[in-house]
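writing this on my phone so excuse typos. first protein, seq and then structure
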Amino acid sequence: MILDIDYIWPFLLLLPIVAFLYASVGHGGASGYLALMAMFSFTPETMKPTALLLNLFVAGIAFLHYNKAGFFNKRLFWSFAISSIPLAFVGGMIDIEATIYKRILAVLLIFTILKMLNVFGKESEKINHVKLWQGLIVGAIIGFFSGLIGIGGGIILTPIILLLHWGNMKEAAAVSALFIWVNSAAGLIGQFSSGVEISSQSFILVGIVLIGGFLGSYYGSKKFNNKILRQLLAFVLIIASIKLIFV
C-alpha cells in the first residue's frame, strides 16, 4: 500500500513541488515522481503505473494552459505521436526485472537533470521543419521507453526539439505536454492489458499533484523561470539516480 511507506509525509510534501516545476515547462513529471518513489523505496510494480497515472492529470493541465496561450504546434506533435502511441502501448505491456528497470530509469533521469540545469536544449531563433521520417524514428524510440519505464517522454523530447531547432521553448512545452499525455495513456492501457492494477490510494496522490501541476503550468505558460528551484530539483534527482544505480 502506498500510504504505508515509511516517511510518507516528506514524500507527500515534495510531490506537489515536483509537479509544479515539471508542469511549468509543459511536463507531466513522471521522471520526478519515479525519482521520489525510488528515494522512498517504492517497489517498481507500484512506481510504473502510479507515475503514468499522475502524468495523465498533470500533463493534461499543462497542455490546456499552453494550448490556450496559443503555443501548440499540431504538425510538430503528430510527427512524433503517430509512432510513439503504439510503441508506448507495447512498452507498457513489458515487465522487466527490477534491477534493469532501476538502471534504465537512472540513465533517463540524467536527461531530466541536464534539462533542469539548462545544460542543453537552449532556445534558438532559427526554426527547422521536422521531416516525417525523423519524427517517426524519434517518436518510436521515446514512446517505447516511455511505456517500458513509466514516463511520458517529454523530458527527452523537449531537449531534442530545441537542440535540432524544430520549435521554440513554448512550442516544445506545448507539444511535449500532449505527447506525454498520449504516451502515458497508451502505456497505462498496456499495463492494464497485462494484468497490472492501480492502488486506490494512488488517486490521493492525483489530488496532491493537481495542485502543483495547475499552478506550475499556469505560471509556466506566462513568464516563469525559477533557477533556484530547478537547481534544488536537479539535486534531488541526482540523489535518486545514485540510489538507483548503487542501492
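second protein below, same order as before
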Amino acid sequence: MKNLIRYSTGIIALAITACSAPRQSLQLTNATDQDKKDELIVLTRAQVQRFTGKLSPEKYIIITRPGQAGPPVLVQHDDLDHDGVWDEIAFMLSPAAGEKNEWKLQPSDAPATIKAVVRAHVRQKRKLSDGTFGPDLQTDSIPAGQQPTDFTKEKLPPFLTEGPAWENDKVGFRFYFDGRNCKDIWGKTTPRMVLDEVGTNPANSYHHLSDWGMDILKVGKSLGAGALAVHLSNVNGRDTLLRLGGLSMGPVKYEKVADGPLRAIFRMHYPAWQVPGRTGTMSLTEEIHIWAGQYFYESRVTLNGAREGDELVTGIVNLYDLPAKRVDTPDVSVLYTFGRQSENNDKLGLAILVGKGTAADFGVTPNAGSDVLNTYTVKFPGNKAVFRFYAAWEKSDARFGNEQSFTDFLKTEAFNFSRPVSINR
C-alpha cells in the first residue's frame, strides 16, 4: 500500500498505516508545473520513525540519495521541548517542476559532517555594565511596565537593538522588548547574519543605510510588522481593540527554541495579560519561525482565557495613506500594501498571508482615538492564529521596486503555500 505525507510549510498531514513495516527510503515529488526554491521539509520524530523504526534518544538522521554519489543533505535536528532529545528534523530542497526523487533516511550516532552556511538566526542579548552586550540568551524576561529606552539619556538600550531579533539570508525583524511590544523590520542587502553586530556601537546608527542594510520601518502607534492585539467584545458595554503591550501586559518571557542553520524558532510568553474592565487574566504564547530563502516570518499564536466574541488581531502599519489591496486564491488570502514606505524613502511591499481555512477578516483602525492607530488589520476568530508577515524591500531584491512584480511574487507565494511538495513511500 502506498502511503502519503503532505507537507505545507509549518503543517504536516500524515496518512500512514500503523502496521506498515519501517522503510528507510522516501519519495519527494514536486507535482506542480513550477520550480520550487528552498522548500523546507519538516518531519516529527514519530514521522521519521515510520521510515527508520524506533530510534534511541542519542540517534541522529542522515539523508542521502540512494545509489548516487555526493554529500548528504544538511539536516537540522531541533529539540522543541528542551528535554535533550530532538523532536523534529528540518531539511531543505529545491525540486524542479515535476521532479520526483528517492531519498534514504539512515540513523547515525552523529549528524552528518557538513560545513553549513548559517541562513537563519535568532538572538537576545543584554547590555553588560561595561556597555558591551553579553552572550546570546536561551531565555530572558521583563517585568510588567518595562519602559522604552530614553535615548536622550542612554546611548544604548538594555537589550541589543531593544529586544529579540531574528533574521534569515533575505530579511530580518525585531521585537521592542518593553511596553510597546511592537515588531520592526531590518531590510537586508547581504545574505550573512548581521544582527549580532547591528546596534552595538551608537556611532553607527542602524537608521542609516549601511553595507548590510538598515531599519526600514516607521511604526508609530500602529501594529507595525505583525504585532498582536485582541478585539475584545463587551468591555464596559462596548467592543474595543487592545494591543498586547502597556501596563496591562504583565511580565513577558522570551524563549529560544532553535537557532539555524536552516531555521530559527523562538517563543514569546505573556502569562498574565490583564484586560482593563474585566476580572481575571488572559495568557498568550506566540511562536515565531523563520527559515532560509524567504521574505517572511511565520507566527503561530495561542490565546487562553479569552471570552466568547474575542478575536486575535495582527496588522500592517499604514502611515503613508497607501491603499490596502488583496491577492485571493481558493486556498489563500493576502492583504498587502506597496509604495514608498521605507525609512530610506524607497519601495517596500508589506503583506500578511493567511490560509482560507482560518476565516480571517481584513479591516482598518481609525487614525485617532484608539489604542491602535494607522493599521490595516487581520482578525482571527477563536483562540488560535497562524499567519506569515512579508517584508519585500527594493534594495533587497530589484523586483520589489515594482508593484506588479511584487504582486506576482505574492501569487507565487500563495501557490507554493497551497501546493507543497509531497512525500510518498
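Residues 1-19 have pLDDT under 50 and may be disordered. thats all i got for now
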